């Protein structure tokens, strides 16, 4: 990697060059013109191996995925000017350094530095991390010198319905704006109109992005519009001015409306879990499967973290739109990211309006805002991806799985990539972090290749395809046997999140009672057994048991986090309260038991638990099912009603077997 071969300053300059991709194409052209051409049409994120040079590139970009090889494989600067390398070189960059980069670009007197091209740091459907993303009049612009074009007209989404905004005054089809560019994902995989989602063909079509949402623009055209604009003052004097204004810092642009944002689960365990997986991993070097890398996969200990996000802009939500009734979202955002600035659609519209003031009075034309580093998230675009769209319905799954396949999810078996957020919340809530589950990966005994099971996919066919791809690349999968290698907790805490005082989705009164009794009995018996065992051999470490019924509305937020952080087994009816699983500590037996009205099932907590290395059971009265024996998604009539059955003794037996290591 750069930092081994070059000084920071050199890395800076190379990075500047590499980001524009000029250096890259010049170098390639110098060596092999046809290769350069060929490379320019290789889709984003892939490399072709049809020439000797490209072989080198392909090898470089795959070998850099292990730290060890990367340090020996980087012999020349030319080899490093790939997109992968640009990303790698940001590894270990403090925020000040990224700031510095933006500053350097803006202070430069060269016109092409005022308007640097847009760079792609990382992309998965619905998750796109940009360098130098532009906005004017509510349209996001990607400035590129790559060839861009219109796609074929066979896309079915548009043919279903003739929407007026898809057509110009002369009947021209506006949906076929510049929506494709070499080396870039399709615009529909990055953004949407940001409208609310319902499951109808009309609504699906109405969420397809139109050119007002996002466009590619050539470097020359961008320069003409914003770079070197000729202005005439009131005395008729002409001068040239740049119309680019920089929004300093790292921005998170949330394009989805408040529809889902206003739920604790969707904001924290979906949006921000995905943001953390994507952002943290994008700035992290890849670590693949090998004995020597194992401690990292089991570690929650981070020495080099990603730069912070400074600003979140909810483009289509007002201040109310992302706040949930119980108030956990606002607690989370302030506790986990105390310095984060939050802007809303009003603030975005302020920027939109300001960009057009000069047009309004005819004096100076439009202004453009430049975001030096921006992560754009879009719910509809994520649902266009295969993993979210057809497997999990979880937008975070696209971000998580992309980074897993890249080998970039640090501490994958213990939610290590999530640990910075989890620990920030623990600290805020007064949880003792060290005791709360910081895991030193070096102490985890696990051998590569033993009973290796596949990942977090539910569809057997896709799971197989992913496993094959993962195996080829040597990426790490999540599986139960990895959890079995973790340390046991020092206490067994079973937390039952009761919904009995909620409006809907409750257990029958009798089943709730029996459940509480069964758990009380179990815990009493276990503690008696422990007493007897300790009397015999006082030196043994046998964890004490505890059972808690948690009614969230009667506890402060701090108390809820404290309870979650101590929880070994989280138990409850499907609902937002189970979101607390993201604050559980990773241990050998950490589990979520989610009660559904049979045959109900949803992916929310199933996927989320597994993404953090926590085992999940779906409980149907007296029957428990766990991965890979996954039920089908189903919302029977009784799903939301207040007569959900559960057989308490069956739950108690499941818990006992789990803690005893039988499951
Ligand atoms: C700015 O955007 C609005 C809404 O899309 C559009 O009606 C208007 O024509 C745009 N202004 C210019 C100058 O392009
Ligand atoms: C975390 O890593 C640092 C440096 O590698 C090490 O000194 C420290 O002991 C580790 N802490 C834990 C809790 O693993
Ligand atoms: C739940 O399971 C128990 C124990 O097997 C059984 O007696 C009861 O009838 C079941 N309830 C329902 C609603 O199926």
Automatic annotation (TrEMBL):
Residues 1-36 form the signal peptide. This is Glycosyltransferase 61 catalytic domain-containing protein. One of its GO terms (biological process) is protein O-linked glycosylation via mannose. PANTHER family: GLYCOSYLTRANSFERASE (PTHR20961), PROTEIN O-LINKED-MANNOSE BETA-1,4-N-ACETYLGLUCOSAMINYLTRANSFERASE 2 (PTHR20961:SF38). Keywords: Glycoprotein, Glycosyltransferase, Membrane, Signal, Transferase, Transmembrane, Transmembrane helix. Pfam families: Glyco_transf_61. One of its GO terms (molecular function) is protein O-acetylglucosaminyltransferase activity. The lineage of its organism: Eukaryota, Fungi, Dikarya, Basidiomycota, Agaricomycotina.
